[in-house]
Known about the structure:
Elements: H1 3-45
Amino acid sequence: MDIAALAMSVKHNELMQNVSLTMTKKAMDFQQDNAKQIVEVINASHPILGKTIDIYV
């Protein structure tokens, strides 16, 4: 294998790894935003849920 082909192969692999990493980060950010929205909806629906305890003696 000549040096030019090897260099192109290495650069291609590096590019593919960077694209994969970027896509993974984007997916993680998207899921984190979804989780925040779910928590906001739950808190808005039940503002006192989990904040009080009913105790009868």
